[in-house]
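Project outcomes to date are best conveyed with an example. Our students and postdoctoral researchers have been running inverse folding experiments weekly, and each run begins with a structure described purely in C-alpha cells. The record below, which covers 153 residues, was selected by the lab manager from last quarter's runs and is presented without edits.
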C-alpha cells in the first residue's frame, strides 16, 4: 500500500513540475506569390513574412516562410532571402538565407528562415524581406523581388 502511494506522488511531480509551454505572439503578411520563368516548368514561389514576439522575454524575431513548386533541375544561379527585423523601418537584425541549392534540388518544399531573437522596446517592430535571384540561362543577371513586410507589432 505504501508503494502505491509513493508511486502516485512521484507520478505527480513531473506533471506539476513541467514548465508551461512557450508563448509567442505572431503577426504575418499575406502570402506573396511569384512565378519565375525558369527552364522547363516555371517555378512558383510563395513567401509569408512574420514578426514574432516571445511573450515571456519580450524578444522579437522575423520569420520568412518560403514554399515552392516546380523547382529542381538547377533553375537558379542564386536565390537569397534577405530577412530583417526592423523597428520603424530601421534594420536592427538581419540574415541571408541562401535557398539556391534547395530550390535547385527539390521539386517542392517549404523552408522557414528565422532571424535570431533580439530585444527591443515594443512598438513599430516588423519583419521584412527582399529576395535576390538569378534565373539560370536567362541572361538577365541578378534581379530583386521586394516583399511586403509583416504588420507592426
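After processing, the design step wrote out the following sequence:
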Amino acid at each position: 500500500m505504501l508503494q502505491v502511494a509513493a508511486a502516485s506522488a512521484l507520478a505527480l511531480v513531473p506533471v506539476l513540475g513541467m514548465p508551461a509551454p512557450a508563448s509567442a505572439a505572431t503577426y504575418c503578411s499575406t502570402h506573396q506569390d511569384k512565378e519565375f520563368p525558369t527552364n522547363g516548368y516555371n517555378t512558383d514561389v510563395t513567401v509569408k513574412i512574420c514578426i514574432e514576439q516571445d511573450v515571456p522575454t519580450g524578444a522579437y524575431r522575423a520569420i520568412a516562410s518560403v514554399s515552392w513548386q516546380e523547382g529542381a533541375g538547377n533553375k537558379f544561379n542564386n536565390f537569397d532571402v534577405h530577412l530583417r527585423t526592423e523597428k520603424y523601418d530601421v534594420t536592427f537584425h538581419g540574415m541571408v538565407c541562401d535557398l539556391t541549392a534547395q530550390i535547385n534540388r527539390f521539386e517542392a518544399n517549404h523552408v522557414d528562415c528565422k532571424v535570431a531573437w533580439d530585444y527591443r522596446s515594443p512598438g513599430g517592430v516588423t519583419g521584412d524581406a527582399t529576395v535576390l535571384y538569378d534565373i539560370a540561362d536567362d541572361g538577365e543577371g541578378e534581379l530583386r523581388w521586394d516583399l511586403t513586410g509583416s504588420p507592426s507589432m
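The two ends are 56 Å apart (CA to CA). DSSP finds two helices and ten strands in the chain. The training component of this project remains on track.
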